[in-house]
Specification:
Keywords: Signal. By secondary structure, the protein is mostly helical. Among the domains are: 4-34 and 546-700, no CATH class; 118-170 and 173-256, no CATH class. It has 37 helices and 8 strands. The strands form 4 sheets. Strands 1-2 form a two-stranded antiparallel sheet. Helix 11 (185-206) runs parallel beside helix 14. The protein is flat, with a radius of gyration of 27 Å.
Length: 708
């Protein structure tokens, strides 16, 4: 029996879920808006029995089996303090899982060299860059260049020379087995031929030891390697890769698509860290700050810079001083490129005066927004030509003052949209920031200060004067922004939105902002103020937040004790849910509010994921439900009660429980839930080979589990 037979009766569950989530969110928002000041009435505290679960739901990506009991035994306050000091927690098991991902330790230049994007391949083919001498790297280059030439020849043969000339701007095709756009009959025939060839070659090569496999692959022509790499079905590919070293695996995968190796390992690492790290608060805060200082992985070479950005600019500062975090992100090549500050030129700078008329303000370079309240800005992103490289092209792009970063650092990173700044402040800050640029951005170069691009003279931002300091001017300006009362309140409110409620109590935000200013922007101290506040522990805060798709997926994996064998499968599920990792185009980052994620289509995708996970039909993820959740009882209703306790700590509403009971009363649903393709009577009589996965999936899709 297939899980899809269960989905028909689940329409009622989904409708109830959506209604309950939205209604509850509006009710809680109304309560918090009408709440009396703390001096008049303190918020009602939650029961002690719920404190451990609440702490786990907020400070982690969700409890694992047994976590609630472990936190209760340690003491909730002691456990929180330990999470605030992640250096005291051993994360060796996670590091072992990440050890096969070599790209995580590479800088942008190394990534571009090992996993060449189209513009690097074009430069090699034109003789502007050398072909690598390493045999593994050379195989990747040769395979990709062969594919590039084949695409050009194919389009030229169809009389589309112009399109062929621009084909180098396109990435190599995705895995041919993945879902994609509609193909022509010719493309389908090519795929069938590629699969036939790949299977034939793979059968012979897979039988060899791993070292000999890679040697045989390198003996093939570039065209043959490309056909094999792209035409092999996933299960055959895994057999081919089995036993290979990390470098060998990356080489084979990069023959099909180098960029997908970089993006895939980065996304996989994020999923594994969230699911398995003992330093859960650190992971939650890394996710929070990346979203706050968002960059987009599909803008030019940013895909090759984001891993280093998260590793070196964000992760070391997530619990440190906000000033240090702000400066680190401002200097990061990923941010400099994403918000275009690398190409900003002072109108009266030496570069503008001597560079051929670059002194006019580049209004066309600046992003404009349609304002719609906090988190609703929708930018019209300017996409840079991914093939521009070299000093001449970079010089041409530096056509004037660019205000993009100056605007966003005020509106989204520090002061907030109502932070009291003016358009004149934005322009003046943009001048202060001129000269903060990059060395060879298309080749993975790092940050540098270019004094010739810097605007000379005095600038005034928020009433503060900056002049004559060169690079230090921007440092001083960013530090000034980091210590503004408006910044303290804006950052504190966003933290409270993440950890307390979509509309956090004003009194709590004010206390957090006071700590921010008093403790020099110490993020750990601001969090400690929040975690020890009555508002954090109030009954209104309990399950007040709707999980984002990322939070839902990871919390499901943690709750069921799932073993993730192929994290990229999880990343693909998140794409379907509308939250691709590192894939938010606007600088606002993903919304933390419920209304961005609660709709029928989103809930259906969540339910499908939950059922796939629970029933073992999610490729690349292994869940031993009996081991993680306990052996099922003799009937579905008793199993439901057991799993409600294990997955929801027994905290399930009467309406949800009754709705799930009705689903299990359907013989077909009950039959599937107990894991046997037999009659309900025979299934009830059986005492072995029973699978509570469908019931677990139903509970994971419930309104209660989708809240934290």
């Amino acid at each position: 029996m297939k899980v899809r037979r269960v989905l028909g009766p689940l329409a009622l569950v989904l409708a109830v879920s959506a209604g309950m989530l939205l209604a509850a969110d509006k009710t809680k928002t109304a309560k918090q808006t009408e709440q009396s000041p703390p001096s008049a009435a303190a918020p009602a505290a939650m029961d002690d029995s719920k404190r451990a679960l609440h702490a786990l739901n907020r400070l982690t990506f969700g409890p694992r089996p047994g976590d609630v009991q472990r936190v209760q035994a340690m003491g909730v306050d002691k456990w929180i303090e330990l999470q605030l000091h992640p250096e005291k927690l051993d994360d060796g098991a996670l590091q072992a899982r990440l050890s096969s991902y070599r790209t995580l330790a590479m800088d942008s230049r190394e990534l571009l060299q090992n996993f060449p994007p189209p513009f690097v391949l074009k430069a090699v083919e034109a003789g502007r860059m050398p072909m690598p001498s390493d045999s593994n790297q050379r195989a990747v280059y040769e395979s990709q260049m062969a594919a590039y030439r084949a695409r050009k020849e194919n389009k030229a043969a169809k009389g589309n020379d112009g399109a062929a000339n621009n084909d180098d701007a396109k990435p190599a095709p995705q895995d041919p087995n993945a879902a994609g756009s509609t193909m022509t009959d010719e493309q389908r025939a090519e795929r069938r031929e590629a699969r036939r060839y790949a299977r034939t070659q793979a059968e012979e090569i897979t039988a060899l030891p791993p070292d000999k496999r890679i040697a045989e692959l390198l003996k093939l022509t570039p065209e043959q390697r490309t056909m094999l790499a792209r035409g092999l079905p996933q299960e055959d590919r895994e057999r081919l890769l089995a036993g290979m070293t990390p470098q060998q695996r990356e080489t084979v995968l990069a023959m099909a698509n180098p960029r997908i190796v970089v993006a895939g390992e980065m996304q996989s690492a994020k999923i594994l860290r969230a699911a398995y790290s003992e330093r859960q608060l650190e992971e939650v805060m890394t996710d929070f700050w990346f979203n706050h200082f968002n960059v987009y992985d599909k803008k030019g070479p940013d895909a090759y810079m984001i891993g280093q950005y998260e590793r070196d600019a964000i992760r070391p500062h997530v619990l440190g001083k906000f000033e240090d975090l702000l400066l680190a992100t401002a200097r990061s090549p990923a941010m400099l490129f994403y918000l275009d500050n690398w190409q900003s030129v002072g109108p009266d700078s030496a570069f503008a005066k001597n560079g051929g008329g670059y002194g006019q303000q580049g209004q066309g370079q600046n992003r404009r927004f349609r304002r719609g309240g906090f988190g609703q800005q929708q930018p019209r992103m300017q996409r840079n030509d991914p093939n521009q490289q070299g000093a001449q092209q970079i010089k041409q792009r530096r056509s004037g003052l660019n205000e993009n970063y100056a605007r966003e650092v005020m509106e989204l990173h520090t002061l907030g949209v109502d932070g009291g700044y003016t358009q004149q402040d934005v322009t003046e800050l943009a001048k202060v920031l001129t000269g903060w640029t990059m060395r060879q951005p298309r080749l993975g170069g790092g940050y540098e200060f270019n004094a010739r691009m810097h605007e000379p003279g005095s600038k005034i931002v928020l009433g503060h004067q900056f002049s004559g300091g060169g690079e230090s001017e921007a440092e001083a300006a960013l530090k000034m922004l980091a210590h503004q009362p408006a910044t303290a309140k804006f950052v504190s409110r966003k933290l409270a939105m993440r950890f307390v409620a979509d509309e956090p109590p004003a009194a709590l935000v004010d206390r957090m902002a006071q700590t921010f200013l008093k403790k020099d922007g110490d993020i750990r101290e601001v969090l400690r103020t929040m975690f020890h506040s009555p508002e954090f522990w109030s009954r209104d805060a309990y399950r007040a937040k709707v999980k984002t798709p990322f939070e839902f997926v990871v919390s499901s994996l943690r709750a069921t004790g799932a073993e993730i064998q192929n994290p990229f499968v999880i990343a693909q599920a998140l794409n379907k849910m509308g939250m691709p990792l590192y894939g938010m185009q606007p600088p606002t980052g993903y919304s933390m509010k419920a209304d961005a994620w609660v709709n029928s289509a989103a809930l259906l995708n969540r339910m499908n994921f939950a059922l796939g996970l629970g029933t073992g039909r999610l490729p690349g993820v292994n869940m031993d439900s009996a081991r993680a959740l306990g052996a099922p009882a003799r009937d579905p209703q008793a199993t439901l009660a057991m799993l409600e306790q294990k997955l929801l700590d027994g905290d399930v509403s009467k309406q949800t429980h009754q709705t799930l009971q009705k689903q299990l009363a359907d013989p077909k649903v009950a039959e599937t839930a107990m894991g046997a393709d037999v009659t309900p009577e025979a299934s009830a009589a059986m005492n072995t080979n029973r699978n509570p996965g469908v019931i677990a999936g139903l509970i994971l899709g419930s309104p209660e589990f989708q809240r934290r």
